[in-house]
Amino acid sequence: MRERFCRPSSSTSSKPSVVSMAVTAPFCSSTALVAMVVPWMKRSTVEAGAPACASSCRTATIKRIADAILGAFVRALPQRMPAASSGTLLVMALGGRDPATGDTFVASELAAGGMGARPRKDGIDAIETDVSNCMNIPVESVEMGFPVRIPRAGLWADSGGAGQFRGGLGLVKVFEATGADIMISHRGERFASAPWGLHGGLPGRSARAFILRRDGRREELPSKQMIELHPGDQLWEYIAGGAGYGDPLERDPAQVLADVLDGKVSHESARETYGVVLVSEGHAVDELGTKEYREAIRRRRGPITWTFDRGVDGRR
């Protein structure tokens, strides 16, 4: 009897999709790539055969598949692969009973992090990449339709990995329950690992989240958990930034200054990570001071001999 598989699936389609992005061969169609890749895949927890078909949280899986494949191509296609992006976006479902109408409600929330830096360009801030294309949900639409307030939503300074080309910044977003208890299915990613930097670029900041209770108590959260907010409680979300590409000491000091003035990079990071000395209350670059300070950092650090920088998980 012929074995049945659950086709098509996100995990199946993501593999040839990412390969096509990496290779960009005009003569190789997506159909041909599927024909080449799919027959080599064996039954597993990722490619389960019927009746054990995937039913939920597939995006987290296919985003890690994309990371793994793009990372595997780094040495095969040098100077073409980007540093790692933030990974899967934050996905939440919020539900409860609206006190204004008495009706139950369910709201979905999506929040994207930073894109990894590219061989010749910075990563883009707070945007979905590779195998997903969702965008951040506007604050106004959430606040108008549900008993939720969003007192803060913006870019997370210093979350993009430093490099000759900087990783895109992640997102900070705060959700506050107003007039009702709210149950939340919380599904984040990149809490325990960081997007990897390339060729001297630093990893992006890892994601994190916590609840700030109305009485001032703070509860740190894992990446995935069912949680409950009561009126006045706040959920703080920090979505990971993209990783950097290339030596941060090779970044144009004028670009570092522009990032500082835009609030994307702190004065401390400009000096200690990029080696850029600022004067005139942070509004100008000390060219000579920058040159000397960068040379001092290079002597302390030594040459860059690694390809990947995974932060706490090491370099290789």
Would you give an account of this structure?
- By secondary structure, the chain is of the alpha+beta class.
- The chain has a domain of 66 residues.
- The protein is 23% helix and 20% strand.
- The protein has seven helices and 13 strands.
- Strands 3-4-10-7-8 form a five-stranded antiparallel beta sheet. A four-stranded antiparallel beta sheet has the order 2-1-5-9, with no helix packed on it.
- The chain is globular, with a radius of gyration of 22 Å.
- The N and C termini lie far apart (46 Å).
- The N terminus is likely disordered.
Strand order of the largest sheet: 3-4-10-7-8
| Fraction of residues in helix | 10-25%
Number of strand elements: 13
| Strand coverage percent | 15-25%
Question: How do the helices and strands follow one another from N- to C-terminus?
Answer: HHHEEHEEEEEEEEHHEEHE
Put simply, the count of helices is: 7
Low-confidence parts: 1-5
Summed up, what is this model?
By secondary structure, the chain is of the alpha+beta class. The protein has helices at residues 10-23, 30-37, 58-72, 139-145, 253-261, 267-272, 287-301; strands at 90-97, 104-111, 148-155, 171-177, 182-187, 197-198, 208-212, 218-220, 224-229, 234-238, 278-279, 284-285, 308-309.
Q: SSE layout and pairings?
A:
Blueprint: H1 10-23, H2 30-37, H3 58-72, E1 90-97, E2 104-111, H4 139-145, E3 148-155, E4 171-177, E5 182-187, E6 197-198, E7 208-212, E8 218-220, E9 224-229, E10 234-238, H5 253-261, H6 267-272, E11 278-279, E12 284-285, H7 287-301, E13 308-309
Helix pairs in contact: 1-2, 1-3
